[in-house]
């Protein structure tokens, strides 16, 4: 068989495997060469520091576990092919360990040393792709899969223009236009991160008749998707118009709140809900679901219809405004009253906040909820070191400073803001002022994500609303109130996007919510009931958490614990009570965490990983204390012992100065000195803060500073053992 003909038959078989043009299931990876192509397509194509790709030609069965960096790395269920990518010497870390699975998923872990006992050899370079004659769109799609996407559409959404491009393709996007010259050929739009809200990486690809590809990256989709047909199947989420289908409606929890005195009268509690969706194609049903769930929760708390201002998509226009081809229902709770009153435009935002400015005063509380898409402002490029962001509306956008100007018109006793969209931490930064509690799905440099597998809701706002709607889940101290602090900590602990890594598109694989409260106590007093005369401190793992302006402690004695990814045993001067046990040995890690059992040396940190440890973590990250002037210091007495880290982040050498103090009576304090600026999108550089008692039910108490971007000279955190907890008010109803 002629080589070119054989190659074309192979890629056409791949397209047939993908069931083009109806639905595309992930094409299986069946050979070592295909696995190498998939690795490049998913992980390496944006990197400029790759020196060599090593691998094992034979697939390995699963589950795949590889000992590396004094840890056991779990790399998926297998079967698949193992690769080790050697990066340039100055890259940190210098290796990537990857497994390409037969279903085309790829698991990657950065490693600092070549795993001992891993037998890998250089992977042969692929032969140059032969010239082919591409005569149909189906053949063009097969070429796209084989030459650009690593033989599979898995994890991506792909759309094809219905008409062949004769010469140059010009496509208007949300932020300008893209041009692809070189036709005749077939045009494709590839969404590389479809689980994320916009804006995020995508590509326009022209497959020429000779098989060559013209690729133009973008961050936003076509402004008009009508000329395109989707070739893949992706769950956009389903509309959930029936109240019975909304999650976690908890009558017992609602009754519990009736036991609590109404802190602020309903007439003085107001809310603004904003979701634009930008256009009908990108206005996914989950945004309506997000807003409906929050709206119904407000009603559960007795909010008046007249005090809830909803700005959604195209407002009351009966035209189709949603990706499932319908006009968004105006009624969120099936009571026959239209709840959506305005389209989500800058003009209507100004109108609503002008009304609120004239109506609200020092006895009123305002709650703001936003969802849909967000973007960095023009000029704010990767790694997004500045908090200049946009919230997308209906066909336009509003900047953080513009939204802040509208919000600042309102004089209220207190405000709360919950922001779901990508880059939403920028809104937290823009709206920071006294008497406000603000939280977001992501920091200002991160995308935010929909809830897998069905994408019926966005991940963070769903968990926040669940906590507020269901006291059995959100009320940590059984006082009948779910405060903003409790809702934030519940969402932080339950968010399923737990990763500090970037993928091959330089997209954050996880999201970490931002949080800010001024004064810091406002977040633990403000609930959807308003502000009561008094509330109990949130309680997790048997501890309460407070903040103070206590000074950073003196360093004490240098230990010469200077290393990367190591821990040292330290005999405490007293038995430290933690989780119902007495501990006389602390295992102090170079990575800003202290273990009391099963110590580890890894700096790879996640909230759900902390939950599996018995440890206290003032700032758990991939740190090193091996540099000049770095060390771990100890100051001990009969009543307390303080461990201080003078360190830096391993990946990018950011100074880190943190301390943890253990008291004889079981109290724990965290202190923050200069540096500690974990900002910008950097793979493998994030932090987890809190205490965890692995053997205790619900035994994790996350620090409020998880939500801070910069912890230089930040307030100290104190965790104190709490006494017995009263039964929940809703339980009393059952007696």
UniProtKB/TrEMBL annotation:
Gene3D superfamilies: 3.40.50.1460. It comes from the Bacteria. The lineage of its organism: Bacteria, Pseudomonadati, Thermodesulfobacteriota, Desulfovibrionia, Desulfovibrionales. Keywords: Signal. GO terms for molecular function: peptidase activity. Residues 1-18 form the signal peptide. Pfam families: Peptidase_C13. It comes from Megalodesulfovibrio gigas (strain ATCC 19364 / DSM 1382 / NCIMB 9332 / VKM B-1759). One of its GO terms (biological process) is proteolysis. This is Peptidase C13 family protein. InterPro entries: Peptidase_C13.
